[in-house]
Each structure stands twice: as structure tokens, then as C-alpha cells.
Amino acid sequence: MTCKPALAVVGATGAVGAVMLQILSQHADVWGEIRLAASPRSAGRKLAVRGEECEVLELGESIFDGIDVAIFLVPGEVSERWAPVAVAKGAVVVDASPAFRADPDVPLVVPEVNPHAVRVRPRGIVASPHDTTLAMLPAVGALHAEFGLQELVVSSYQAVSGAGREAVAALRAQLSLVAGTELGVGPGDVRRAVGDDLGPFAAPLALNVMPWAGTVADDGWSSEELGLRSETRKILGLPTLKVSATCVRVPVLTAHSLSVHASFEKEITVERAHEVLATSPGVVLYDNPEAGDFPTPADVVGTDPTWVGRVRRSPDDACGLELFVCGDNLRKGAALNSAQIAEAVAAEYT
């Protein structure tokens, strides 16, 4: 009888780690031992996985002894240090951080789009894309396979949980300051009420949106805007694909949304696009505006698929399509995609 592979989850105590443990408990049990690791301050905690309590261990070299697959749900600098250690110990690493996404020797994988890429991993590492990319790619990838994608123009509406727990706390605090007031009717009144406690943001998010996510990159672009471009190109195998993105942070706790304009090689109809999207794995078509049916973050949070609505053919382009997508950035956008990649690696042990 074949032994089930052993799994390590690094970053088990974070927000994405908590979702990962839920997924491991809900999915088919393909794992033998599951070992949880985190920073020294979190070591010793006990977390439930597969119905049993598991003690969190301090991250160190010995964590990876006997481990076949290691999922990293940690900041990039932690992955850069410890992923090579895990590989040297014989583990395949699935990394959700930005550390290896651009590395040509590390496949960047969305299982619904390019599952074959998991098998070619020269460095022993498979990367998972940014949560904004993951909200879009299951739908856009399916349409590309049918019609041949030529160009994307995207605006994202990103939930604060994508920036971490500090961001969530900051938004909740700001909302409590403006709730029940008449703020939002004069220039700067919200900013004055919120004060200097903006958390990780450059502007208030309560009663507001902020056209910025990420760090400063070249020519006025943000790192997340350029990352969405490069990741989409890599996943779809289209190195010269035209992609332009504007990333906007909105006062939503969890679930990213994107407004997408996609141009294709072939003429496209809404009816045919509906057929493709409705039969694509990891995608739910929810598109009947007359009945008020279209995806919103508040309705899709806590679910796994990419939800698609507002599908329209571009009025001036028979090969162009407009659509609106939503996806939970902590589930498919982080934990679920990593779990799916890890499960694909685990299948190699059967």
C-alpha cells in the first residue's frame, strides 16, 4: 500500500493559514502527517486540522525532516530564506508569496488554467499567483482557451484583507469613527475624522476608495499592477500579451473584484461566452442584471469559485468582451489555490 505524503504548512497561524486548515479538513484526505509551523511567538499554540488538535512548531530546519510537500503562507522574505531549506530536505515547496513568481525556473500555477506546469519544477518550487490575479484568471483563462486572448484592460477593487490583519483592523476602526455621522460631504472631512491612524494605507478607506495597492514601481505604476500583468502573461504562456491594470483598494473586508475588458482574436458573442464560463472549472456564471443577479464581494465571500457577471460584448469591438469578476482573496486567492497545487503534487505519490 502506498503511503500518503507528509505535509508541512508554514505560516499556519496567519489569516490564510486558518483558511488552509479549514480546506485541509474539508477536502479529500490525501495527506499522511500534517505538520504546522510558524514564528517563535506562535509556537506552542494548538490548532484543529482534520478534527484533531495539532501543536504549532517553531519554524526551523528540522520541521522539514521527512516532509514531502511544504506549503508556505508567509511573507516573501521568509519564503526566500526557508523554501530552499525545505527543498534541500527533499520537499516540494508550494509558495504563496511573491518571492518566486517571476523566477523562470519556478512554475506559476492556476490549476484550472495550466495544471501541467506543476510537473516541471527545476528548483523544486511551485509558486501561486497574487490574490488579484487569482480572482480573474479562472474566467479569463477559460475564455482565452476558446477565443485567443490579445489584450486585457483591468481595474481591480481590492479588499483590505489582502493587505493583512493590520489593514482589516484599520478599516474597522475607521468605520466606527464615521458610522452614524454626516461625514463624507465636504473635502477632507473624513480624513480629519480618521486622523493619522490610517494603518497601512495612504488615505482613509472608510467612505472612500484609494487608487493604489502595492509599492512604487517604474513610471508611476504600482508593484501589484505590474505583477498582475507579468503573472497573467506567465500563466497563460503569452509573454507579449498587452495588459494594463489599475489597482484600487476599497472598503471591503474580504473578496476582490475586477472590471475586465478583454480583446480576443476571434469574434465573440455573449451567448457563447456564457456557455464557456458556465462549463469552466472553478467558475460560477451569475449574470442576470434584470433580476439583480451579479456578483458582489458581500455575496461571494467565503466561497471558492471565481464568480462572473455583467458579461457584455464591447459596443465598438466584435472581438471584445466586458465582464465583472469576484473572488474570495483568502480562499481561492491564497489558501485554496495553494492547496490545489499541493494536492496535484500529492497525486504523484499514488
Write a brief caption for the model.
With 350 residues, this protein is of the alpha/beta class. It has helices at 15-26, 76-88, 131-147, 165-178, 189-194, 223-236, 270-278, 297-300, 331-346, and strands at 7-10, 34-38, 46-49, 52-58, 69-72, 92-95, 125-127, 149-158, 242-249, 256-264, 283-285, 306-313, 320-327. It has a seven-stranded mixed sheet, with helices on both faces. Strands 9-8-10-13-12-11 form a six-stranded mixed sheet.
Describe the structure.
With 350 residues, the chain is an alpha/beta fold. It folds into 2 domains: 7-129 and 334-349, Rossmann fold, CATH 3.40.50.720; 133-329, Dihydrodipicolinate Reductase, domain 2. 30% of the residues lie in helices and 22% in strands. The protein is built from 9 helices and 13 strands. The strands form 2 sheets. Strands 3-4-2-1-5-6-7 form a 7-stranded mixed beta sheet, with helices on both faces. Helix 8 (297-300) links the parallel strand 11 (283-285) and strand 12. Helix 1 crosses helix 9 (331-346), helix 3 (131-147) packs parallel to helix 6 and helix 3 crosses helix 9 (331-346). The longest helix is centred in the middle third of the chain and has 17 residues, at 131-147. It is globular.
